[in-house]
Please model this.
Amino acid sequence: MPRPKSTYGLETLAIHAGTPPDPTTGARSFPIYQSTAYVFEDADHAASLFNLQTPGFIYSRLTNPTVAALEERLATLEGGRGATATSSGHAAETLALFPLMAPGMEVIVADQLYGGTINLMGKSFQKFGWQAVFVDATNPDAFKRALTENTRAIFIESIANPAGMMMDLEAIAKVAKDATVPLVVDNTMATPALCRPLEWGADLVVHSTTKFLSGQGNAMGGVVIDSGEFPWFGNPKYPSLSTPAPEYQGITFAETFGDLAYTMYSHAVSLRDLGCTLAPLNAWLTLNGCETLTLRMERHCANAQQVAKFLDDHPAVEWVYYAGLPKSPSHGLAKKYLSGGFGSVFTFGVRGGYDAGIKVVEQVELISHVANIGDTKTLILHPASTTHRQLTDQQRVACGAGPEVLRISVGLEWVDDILQDLDQALQNATS
Model:
């Protein structure tokens, strides 16, 4: 008799969670259910599904068996109660806030984030009437000072992209808990192999599954994972979850579904209306990617540690910001919150500023100049001219994407080959 899943190690869960052998065929590899719709047993069965009285599949915009398997696996890996997969990381960020926000409401946001997220929160969300209040990511008290009666969530990254800075998860979680607002943590850069934010007090975790979870740059996706512990029931701040839903026969999600309220709402309303559904093929590719997550992260982190030390000693490099270096301002927090390594994405500054940074990404040969992270291949980017170019100069500097900054996502190649390519590119760009 198999042991309860909670007793298995993370490596085992990354392989087995959510994917038992196919009950019909016995296939050990979980199938791709490439279907848009599912047959009802009769009219009563159809009605009970649409009323959320019976679990099951209706239409793949809401859920799909392959996608559901991935959701179970990712919820298990993060230690959450439920999960909702989405079509991209940005879709996950939007979906995470959708049950919480309303016109005029505010989300407090760390100022060190992926540039696309800053743009999404600071500009695009304004079209929904949602307001983003950006605060100093390094100072938990800044989050507390920003709280108002309109605050509905706090949003941070466990490891900031691109800067590589660690945020004080426990301290910021306490601010959120004291204010009775959920803390949402983007854990893309760390993955559950290194950090599980729910264990440090977060309420919701989001990922761009496009990155390390799938691992090969071939499957776009995102996910929102709910701890199942936030007190939605009777909470007037969150009427979507705490008041009757007329479209579902007046049920109150928090009352009817308990610790699955947020996840049920995300499927029944958020995916239904926003339509940002993950494709079954991408779910299947991500399921397969998860199976090697822990092994890949070991190699990613080991290679990154060597690359960071090499760059720190290189005459063409002004500075390196990697939490694995003892002199890093994030080293102490990283030792507290990360296990098994310090991540594989970090930034460094090239002597010669903007122009030199551009030259480096044009000179690499083995390393790919790509707007992505978390691939088996080593990737490099000049954020100021790409992912963060839509921001102001002040915003770029604040989030660690100044003119001289290069972001590297260290892959799984033989590390000496990575070092050789970086060396020749740096020499050619700064000579």
